[in-house]
Amino acid sequence: MKLYNTLTRKVEDFKPLGDTVKIYTCGPTVYNFPHIGNYAAYAYWDLLVRCLRLNGYKVKRVLNLTDVGHLTSDGDEGEDKLEKGARLEGKTPFEIADFYAKVYLDNYAAMEFLPADVIARATDYITEDMKAVDLMTERGYTYETRDGVYFNTAKFAEYADFARLDLAGLQAGARVDFSSEKRNVSDFAVWKFIQPGEKHAMRWDYLGRPGYPGWHLECATIIHKELGEPIDIHTGGIDHIPVHHTNEIAETYAAYGTELSRFWLHCDFITIDGQKISKSLGNTYTLEDLEKRGFSPMDYKMWLLSGHYQGTRNFTFESLEASHNRRRNWRERIAMCYQKEMKGGHFAEILEAVSDNLNSAEACALIDNLELDLSDWEKIDALFGLRLIDDTPDVSAEVYNLIRDRDAARTNKDFEKSDKIRDELYKRGIALNDSPDGAMWYYTS
Ligand code: AMP
Ligand code: ZN
Fold first, then answer.
1. Fewer CB atoms inside 10 A, N or C side of the chain?
2. How many angstroms does the Cα of residue 216 sit away from the middle of ligand 2?
């Protein structure tokens, strides 16, 4: 397999470090309803796991759920997103986390994403977080301010490398009134202290006062505990490169003295009608919004897989309609396989396309144009998770009998009877296409 590695900015041959491919996916912050953009990356990482397995690799994948420490700024300022959600909904942050974690996991299932082998909640790793801060401090990478324990990025010479950050430029561009006790503008909190009077329900005693972990730390400690670094592939959204992933790398090196991951994969953002997804533009569509307009989660997954994970993609309802039609056409071809001998044996070409840096767009074009048999379609379903066959079961003997009766009525020029049978079948969701081989059926939806 070939994958684009953000670390080297090149497409490289992928070879796992050990027997099992170790993959970590930065998961969602569970504080509100996900919009369709939030599923983009997971659809491609699902494809990654499926593609690796079909190439014969064993895979262990860990997904985290962030339920503490992610501030509204992505940096060290602002309110904790879970605390903010709790305040707005009049609930506790734990209730908010439980509720939205379930929403996310239910929707992942609706999108036919393979469940991760481990689903790790950040708040279950607080002891590990404290140990990691101890280690970083012992090794001289941190300093304390009134606000928390900070990572001193000046102590980690490679800090800027991963994201190709311009630290001098960042320092120069820092706000003039920058009044924090941070020593360098790129320094970041590994642990935050809760100030007297500050409302923060999620709190743990550490270093003699209440506090909570900085956002990035959970990923470093979960990986350390559940997979052991270096892992093979770390995935996330493109927005994670400059802050979150850069900081995870720094923390792992400082606490454990090791490289975090061999490959880094990042999914680009999708736009809607050419604009970024935002509440103020009213385009934060959920899966339910799509369903209300007659599109299933599988139509949306088809839309995602019809493009490449790298490069901005623009979502429109017209393009979703095209994906719906493409999936329907594929299902019509599956229905055809039940009725007629098809030539196949093309799956290797399709897998090869996806194995080339997850080029699902190229694979879709191949599928559109190749003659395929049922065995090909079964494997395509294993690769894409599109419920193509589940949603296209072979029809019952009773339906086949009706189709034969109608063919006979047509031969006898009894068009009244043949139309009646056609209408009856249509009511059952089955349409007929008359061909030289007799009538072929397909599903109407
Ligand atoms: P948010 O809750 O908005 O911070 O989003 C959580 C994660 O979902 C982000 O870190 C991104 O990786 C991903 N994400 C958000 N918006 C989009 C988008 N428009 N397209 C693709 N991924 C997105
Ligand atoms: Zn992460």
1. C
2. 6
Q: From CA 433, how far away is CA 439, in angstroms rounded? A: 5
Q: Which ligand is nearest to the CA of 236?
A: 1
Q: How many Å lie between the centroid of ligand 2 and the Cα of residue 64?
A: 8
E strands, 167-249, where?
188-193, 204-206, 209-213, 231-237
Q: Is 241 in the pocket of ligand 1 (CB under 6 A)?
A: no
The domain covering 2-267 belongs, at the CATH homologous superfamily level, to HUPs (3.40.50.620)
Ranges of beta strands (E only) in 306-437 are: 313-315, 430-435
Alpha carbon of 401 to ligand 1 centroid (Å):
51
Residue nearest atom 8 of ligand 1, based on CA coordinates: 38
Ligand nearest to the CA of 266: 1
pLDDT of the chain, 445 residues: tens digit per residue: 999 999 999 999 999 999 999 999 999 999 999 999 999 999 999 999 999 999 999 999 999 999 987 888 777 888 888 889 888 998 899 999 999 999 999 999 999 999 999 999 999 999 999 999 999 999 999 999 999 999 999 999 999 999 999 888 877 766 544 457 899 999 999 999 999 988 888 999 999 999 999 999 999 999 999 999 999 999 999 999 999 999 999 999 999 999 999 999 999 999 999 999 987 888 999 999 999 999 999 999 999 999 999 988 999 999 999 999 999 999 999 999 999 999 999 999 999 999 999 999 999 999 999 999 999 999 999 999 999 999 999 999 999 999 999 999 999 999 999 999 999 999 999 999 998 878 999 999 8
> Which ligand sits nearest to residue 251's alpha carbon?
2
